[in-house]
Design a protein that fits this description.
This protein is mainly alpha-helical and 361 residues long. It has 2 domains: 141 residues, no CATH class; 164 residues. Helices cover 73% and strands 0% of the residues. It has 13 helices and no strands. Helix 3 runs antiparallel to helix 9 and helix 8 packs across helix 9. It is elongated and about 95 Å long. The protein starts with 13 loop residues before the first helix and ends with a helix.
Length: 361
């Protein structure tokens, strides 16, 4: 049976690269059903973490486990969200670029298509991954010391988590999510502005052909918000629901500051990306209206006298009015009122919860 698709050959994910090199693609080819190899890798990582290590901690070493700290279940939920989310962001970005029809919109003779793909060059991903893993092992061997970690976590936990699960499963997911999110909310708007793409004024959605881009910005921000809410649950669920046991003390005030900082990063990202696309759409609309204004002025003998100026050609007058209607009807944001309402809710919810917890007695 043919194996599952691993994604775009031109824009591979780090987790796909790791899964291929660890043989999970070959395993996927052997299985009787179609399965995405990184899903097998992540499932194996979670099995080692919560099946082997957690069971060992609970039954043998007596260390903290999911039984004594059940809220940590949000961590595997976040990992699953991460592997599904990065695959979706990569593919949704490719769909958005295709839907832009860049070669049809370009105002210059030089093609800009190659500037859009891939979202992040794979060599940059590998570089970031290498730096991340190097920092992790620097902390493990130099700052903490392997002997101290062995004394705290035990041999089984230290080996499986620090030499397989974290560097080969968790690290590529976290690094890739950050890079793709930056690509969607900061690089894509800049690329659109640089390419000087024209609007599609006959777009049935009245978004100038940017509806797919708007959905990508909105839904990728939803992923960010979902991750932030999982982090909130990890921090404060035992505080809000005291029946949930935890071996850890209540979060220090600095935790609220860190949470607010992450929230501000997300707010800045959606604000920047929407504003940058808005400026492109607004500028293009204004340019077309000025061109139409100049055309009307040239057709009139005395354009500044409404009493004597008249377009005698009815067909020309109707054509100009039609074009003006199409241009003015195009929105200046790649979103609808409903989309803005949904974005506003996702922006406000995490910080509202954070402030409510801090204000509670």
């Amino acid at each position: 049976m043919a194996g599952a698709e691993t994604g775009s050959d031109d824009d591979p994910l780090l987790i796909e690269w790791v899964a291929t090199r660890l043989g999970f693609e070959r395993i996927a080819n052997i299985l009787p059903w179609n399965v995405y190899p990184p899903y097998l890798l992540v499932a194996s990582g979670l099995l080692l973490d919560y099946g082997v290590v957690d069971s060992y901690n609970y039954f043998i070493s007596g260390r903290s486990s999911i039984v004594s700290d059940p809220i940590t279940i949000v961590i595997p939920v976040g990992i699953i969200l991460g592997v599904v989310g990065i695959r979706w962001m990569r593919d949704a970005y490719a769909d958005a670029v295709t839907d832009l029809r860049i070669s049809d919109r370009e105002t210059s003779t030089r093609t800009e298509t190659d500037r859009f793909t891939p979202i992040i060059p794979f060599r940059y991903k590998l570089g970031a991954y290498g730096i991340g893993v190097a920092l992790f092992y620097g902390n493990l061997f130099i700052l903490l010391g392997l002997s101290r970690v062995l004394a705290i976590e035990g041999v089984v936990s230290t080996v499986l988590l620090n030499f397989f699960v974290i560097p080969l499963v968790y690290a590529p997911l976290i690094i890739e999510f950050a890079l793709l999110y930056i690509g969607v909310h900061f690089l894509l708007p800049r690329r659109i502005a640089h390419a000087d793409l024209e609007l599609f004024y006959y777009d049935p959605r009245n978004m100038g052909g940017f509806a797919t881009v708007g959905r990508l910005l909105k839904r990728s921000y939803y992923l960010f918000t979902a991750g932030l809410l999982l982090y909130f649950a990890l921090l404060y669920a035992p505080v809000i629901f005291p029946v949930i046991p935890t071996p850890y003390p209540e979060p220090e005030p600095i935790a609220a500051v860190v949470f607010s900082g992450i929230w501000l990063v997300g707010l800045s990202s959606i604000g920047y990306s929407m504003y940058r696309i808005h400026m492109v759409m607004k500028r293009k609309k204004e340019t077309k209206i000025r061109e139409l204004e100049d055309e009307i002025r040239e057709l009139l003998d005395n354009p500044y006298d409404i009493n004597t100026s008249h377009l005698a050609d009815a067909d020309k007058r109707e054509e100009i009015q039609h074009r003006l209607t199409q241009i003015k009807g195009t929105r200046e944001y790649p979103s609808t009122f409903t989309m803005w309402s949904q974005i506003a809710l996702s922006v406000l919810l995490p910080q509202a919860l954070n402030l409510a917890v801090q204000a509670a007695p």
